[in-house]
Request: fold
Amino acid sequence: MSVPVAGRAAPGAGASTWHAAWLPPAAFRALGARNVLVHGDGPLVDTVLDEVTQACARHGGRVWHSPPWDVDADLVLASRAAGPIANAAAEAARLGATPAVDGTGDGSLGDEGFLLARVDGVTVVLADAPAGLLYGLFHVVRLGAAAFDDDRPARRHQPALARRILDHWDNVAVHPVSGQVERGYSGGSVFWRDGAARGEPDRIRDYGRLLAACGVNAVTVNNVNVHDTEARLLTDRLDEVAGIADVLRPYGIRVHLSVTFAAPVVLGGLPTADPLDDRVRAWWAEATRRVYRRIPDFGGYLVKADSEGRPGPFAYGRDHADGANLLAGALAPHDGVVRWRAFVYDHRQDWRDRSTDRARAAHDHFAPLDGRFRDNVIVQVKFGPVDFQPREPVSPVLAAMPATRLAVELQVTQEYTGQQRHVCHLGPAWSEVLRFAPWGAAGDSIADVITRGGLVAVSNVGDDPFWTGHPLAQANLYAFGRLAWDPRLDPGAILDEWIGLTWLPVTMGDPELVRRTLHAIMDDSWRTYERYTAPLGVGFMVRPGHHYGPDVDGYEYTPWGTYHFADRDGVGVDRTRATGTGFTGQYPQPWSEVYESLRRCPDDLLLFFHHVPYGHVLHSGRTVIQHIYDTHFAGVEEVAAMRERWRLLAGAFEPAAHQRVAERLDEQLRCAVEWRDQVNTYFFRKSGVPDAHGRRIH
Ligand code: GCW
Reply:
């Protein structure tokens, strides 16, 4: 039987109500059955030691931390700073592995890196800093028995990005519109409930542990829409933030806070929040000093300003650089950063005005400011120019600010990708973004662009027993962490890791069948979702407000700037320089030309960039209208097939997990049918063009 083991995942404690996700005790079997020597000291090394101790207690191995080391170790986890090990074989292994560190790069493993080597029958993990040892430990867990293969070559592992951050859109107080977690589909918040900190450190600790095991090293504990209660986390409610920081620290995770730009007014009683006002500057400096006094390793602030009604520098005639630099100045003495979101656009647009283009907004606002931001400002850019749609081009802002630290923001919470009721495995989508080369194949990729800023995502976690509502949505969280650690990883291989860690063969049965089935359901599920929703990159067509399910014209005549412009002749948004909004001009070559050209524009983004007649022939050889019909029929069939596949696994899992996914697949199919019928009917009625295959359209 293959089971994601229920029960408390963290070492030591008894059973609880949430699942172990990708760290069930059985995942530690290979490591826990061995003799393990841990060499080094400090809080994170203690975490390593705890983990190993629990694993060995469970699986029959033994652990040593201090002399006498009368052991033939199978695994040595050693901090290099701790010096020689007074055990001949372990020391020989340590020394044997060392040249592989010294021989490459700058001879250092950095703050978070580690070396994994196999020397004379001993597996060795070396690190220069305790966090590296922790990541090395989790890598050994990930490898399982393979970590002990004699032919394993020595390999250094270092994260490509130093900042790997999850933002929680969690409210402290339940908000009348957005609830406890804005765009949350996994129950309540793991941090807050009904206006107060939940005070459940076990669960937060388990969360931190899961995050560390996939590489995440920072968490923002409250929503970017900072309401009145949440604003006070910065001042008189700072203890609650510190409490969370204390619990996450042993897993190498730093805490960040979303703050309101109006804080000096709403919290400090000043008459202004003008970034150039000395009183305002002094207020932020003092507030920040207090934060660091209480949380010395505090990560920094996250700000949504002049966006969707949030306060910002515009009210004082200042720009985003003035605003961001104000907070950066307060944070700089403490080595903190401010992440300033580039998600700025006019949400009170007139739909009649074809010249305003929401896609242009971030670049229009931010590109001219390149070079003006202080060093500890990170401009955080949503991956696409509009808003986390299933398919968007990569934001041109990412190619327009070479003198600014940039981070990409992804959305793990599935606001626009099925709200964790639909299987939509996003690893492949994110991988495309990270590999995108804005200056052409020979130039840097997005992963290179964000080296100094990092990768950020909106978390999909809540207090749901499966953490993510849909048990298979855990894979998105895992994939985010792994891609942030190494953006070149293959998303299929990441999914395979997650499957191997999470769905463990516990007694009997056919783990390979489970693995194959999960791949068959998940690998292409993002494209399946795309097929039955808005076509060819045009986006939205979701129900306004909650954003679930189809409503083709739901946003068409609204102020939000998310239109498709379908009429009887054609569909799509003309964003060309020649005849449209000029958005294509925000890209460098070659994309500026590729997107501008009707002939060269990739099919999957055609309607994002061009308004075309229904009879326009795609590269695929099909007309746009026939593509719409075909993909919508195909998408539904694919979901039906997913559901069948899952059904075949009944009995292979703990019933609760199987049932939860089964119910959601029922809903996904219902919803996909709804999408298919509304979209196909809408375009049939608009265009009058029948389906070439005569299928039923209403
Ligand atoms: O997509 C929109 C969401 C809002 C969110 C906003 C943002 C937190 O619908 O709920 O607000 O993006 O990213 O700020």
